[in-house]
Design a protein that fits this description.
The protein has one domain. Helix 1 runs antiparallel to helix 4 and helix 1 crosses helix 6. The protein has 8 helices and no strands. 69% of the residues lie in helices and 0% in strands. It is mostly helical. It starts with 9 loop residues before the first helix and ends with a helix. The longest helix has 27 residues.
């Protein structure tokens, strides 16, 4: 079932677009900053892992070639996801991919009582932090047709509608 723009009030659409753009901007900026920092690596973050993903993270750090691949995928994944969200291209895929990536970050270094990290964190959190909130917000964006309402996906959607109505 596909909703069209008349299903939603303008304030709802504006809010969804703003949320999509802001999270996209954050992820794009994170990716670009990693790209621009000479010799940036996720090794420090992965070494800190003490939760669900710790075994995988420590294995990645212990394999330099795998770490290089993970760093490249992480950097370019953030850039692609951020761009997709901002320009509205493959919006649902970008939102789901971003949510999964953020959940991987969360499962590495969640703010769980009894786990101490040497790398400073933002604020004082208990289980819920910005990473988890952004991941859930991206899942929410994935279930709304934000790409087909505003963005490059909307252009493809309109072209597809024209083709269907001509047939």
């Amino acid at each position: 079932m596909h909703h069209n723009r008349t299903t939603y009030k303008p304030i709802q659409l504006i809010t969804l677009m703003l949320l999509r753009f802001l999270i996209g901007w954050h992820l794009l900026y994170e990716g670009i900053s990693k790209f621009l920092i000479p010799n940036w690596t996720s090794a420090g973050f992965l070494k800190e892992s003490q939760w669900i993903m710790s075994g995988v993270s420590h294995w990645i750090v212990s394999n330099p070639k795998v770490l290089i691949i993970v760093d490249i995928l992480n950097t370019w994944g953030l850039i692609a996801i951020g761009l997709g969200l901002i320009i509205g291209l493959f919006t649902r895929v970008a939102a789901i991919s971003g949510a999964i990536l953020l959940l991987v970050y969360f499962m590495n270094n969640a703010p769980i009582t009894g786990i101490e990290y040497s790398i400073p964190t933002e604020g004082n959190n208990l289980v819920v932090n910005r990473t988890l909130i952004e991941a859930i917000a991206l899942f929410a964006l994935a279930v709304f047709p934000t790409g087909s309402i505003f963005g490059l996906d909307a252009l493809f959607y309109k072209a597809k509608l024209k083709k269907i109505t001509k047939e």
